[in-house]
Design goal:
This is AhpD family alkylhydroperoxidase. One of its GO terms (molecular function) is peroxiredoxin activity. By secondary structure, the protein is mainly alpha-helical. 67% of the residues lie in helices and 0% in strands. The protein folds into two domains: 46 residues, no CATH class; 108 residues, Up-down Bundle (AhpD-like), CATH 1.20.1290.10. Helix 1 packs parallel to helix 3 and helix 7 packs antiparallel against helix 8.
Length: 180
Amino acid sequence: MRVAPLPADQWGDAVDAALSGLMPAERRNPEATGNLVATLVRHPKLTRAFLRFNFHLLYGSTLPARLRELAVLRVAHLSRCEYEWQHHVSMGRDAGLSDDDIDGISRGELADDLDRAVLAAVDELHHDSVVSDATWAALAGHLDERQLMDLVFTIGCYGSLAMAINTFGVEPDSNMEAER
């Protein structure tokens, strides 16, 4: 671990201000937020800015939750980010992904045309930093312009987050079950 979670006795006004309005008071502590947020709050201003963007992608995006989780899980798999994978498997199930879908994400094999196009977009952005014309056309046959934009930013945000998690050495939360 390169950047440890901020110890509970160091959570002060700056941390509370960074998280206020984003999560309820009872969740603004290291036990309730988990290792990722407890690590990020070492830099409160960055945490607030990042979480506002991330929460838009989670709760305000035009992208259907199932497609968002499909993309996030593929990012986590390609990035070998166990923390992100573990958090989003349950979120993916809640959004309608089956165990077969989740297994297919790891293999890069899904039956549905739109699902395959989302996986292709993740793979292309991960490897080439651009979505190909063919993949864009396949996505555009199902998603509107704002959904396409939200998809690209979701992939980029969670790719960036996976890089941070892996680099900082954020450990999975003790209450997270390992699922692969």
